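Supplementary Methods, section 5.1.

A reviewer requested that the exact input to the structure prediction be made available. We therefore reproduce it here, unchanged from the version used in the analyses.
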Amino acid sequence: MSTAASIRLDEVRALPVVLDAVTAGRMLGLGRTTTYRLLRQGVFPVPVHRAGKVWVVPTAGVLAHLGLDRLPLLSAHTCGCGARGDHTKEGEP
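The structure derived from this sequence is encoded token-by-token as follows.
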């Protein structure tokens, strides 16, 4: 796999809740052909779902498979949704 095709760690925070099959495969170091072959055979390394004719892969499953779900970068309240981890106002104990 070439460096240009890899997903950088700083891109992980911006990932959507579900991924298309090619993106999920790319994150796992798989090419397009191998990704679809594994999906057809039912042996893709993470849980997948079929939505009509499209395969969708939950991002959480890919991150867990790669061990990235335990990174401080991805801890609670860092999803970019605007929620803060501490709900105290400045100056309050």
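Residues 77 and 86 are 9 Å apart (CA to CA). These observations are discussed further in the main text.
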